[in-house]
Structures are given as C-alpha cells and as structure tokens.
Amino acid sequence: MADDDDDVDFQGASPAYRRALGWVVALNLGYGAAEAIGGLLAGSQALKADALDFLGDGAITLLGLLAIGWPLARRARVAMLQGLFLGALGLGVLGTTAYRVLVQRVPEAEMMGLFGAAALAVNVAAALILAPHRRGAGDANARAVWLFSRNDALGNLAVLAAAGLVAWTGTAWPDLAVAAVVAGLFLHSAWEILRDARRDLRRAGAGNGRTQGT
User: Fold this and answer.
1) DSSP 3-state assignment of 153?
2) Which of 203, 213, 206, 200 is nearest to 1 (CA)?
3) For the chain, what percent of residues have pLDDT higher than 70?
4) pTM > 0.85: yes or no
5) Residue 137 has pLDDT above 70, yes or no
6) Are 71 and 133 in contact, with CB atoms under 8 Å apart?
7) 151-154 long-range contacts, CB within 8 A, separation 24+
C-alpha cells in the first residue's frame, strides 16, 4: 500500500543531506547574531534586515532538518509555518524601515561594507554546501532552504552596494532602500514557500485518497 510520501521524490533523509543542513544552520544562526550586533553598532537598517534574514534562514533550515522523515503532510505544514514566519519578518523590516525614514541617521558605511562582505562569504559557503543536494530533496522544506541560500547572496551584494552609496552620498537613503528590497525578498520568498507547501498538501491528500481506495 502506498503512503503519502510516495507522491514526491524525497531523498532528503540521507546522512549527507542532514550534515549539510547542520552546517547551514550553524552558519546562518552564528553569523545572524554577529551581524545583528554589527547593525546596531553601525546604525544600519540594511544590516539589521540582513541579520534577520540570516536568523530566519537558520530557523527555516533547522525546522527542515527536524522535519526529515516526517510524512509529507506534516512537512508541508512545517513549510507553511516557515513561510508565515518569513512573511512576518518581511513586514517587520518594512515597518522599521518606514520609521527610520522619519528619523534618519546616516549609518557607518565602513562597517556596513565589512559585514556585508562577510555575509556574502557565509552565504556563498552555505549555497556551495547545499548545491549538491538541491535536486535530490524534493519537498517544500528542501526547496525553501535552497531558495534562501541562493537568493541571500544577491541581498548581500545589495548591502555592499548600499555601503558604497552611503559613503558617496553621505545620506541614509541607500541603506533604507536596500532594507526595503531585502524585505521584499522576504515577502516574495514567503509566498513561494507557501505556494509549494500548499502543493505538497494537495499531493499528500491525493496520496491518502488513493491509499484509502485500495
């Protein structure tokens, strides 16, 4: 008799994939905490948004690691929680950025650049760790982890660009603009995760229907 896990090609329970996720969790949570402190010291909204991105990615990856081996429907529900959590982070970044528009403070461009370059290195390392597994683990959790690791490097490049523009213009507007872009990435990725999770839930329901009919 088939169960709901037969509806996806889920190979994410391999020891190699578990180790890869463990490394990505450590990289994201560790650097996210460091960058949050750096964002506070530099007064940079973009760095704070990127730190939340790291912490959110670490939480998402940790949930994905814990969910390995669960039935498809339960993994899909975990993915929905991940998407909702990330969406809440995106809305929070937009709110704090709007507040900073009213109370502008020019961030320290040098510290922004330093942490932005370090964040880029961390995200490239995470993406390289996950790259061999991006096709083998086919559920919404695995797609979410790969999506974030791949897209985060683009956000870090934007932070580096903002640092250069802050130094050039002497204003906070580039920093605020990048924070808004990072928040937009949060919301877009949250929508993609929720879409994939709903699709997995439909697959799980179809699989249960076939099982009950046999």
Assistant:
1) helix
2) 213
3) 74
4) no
5) no
6) no
7) 151/185, 151/189, 152/53, 152/54, 152/57, 152/119, 152/123, 152/126, 152/127, 153/120, 153/123, 153/124, 153/127, 154/185
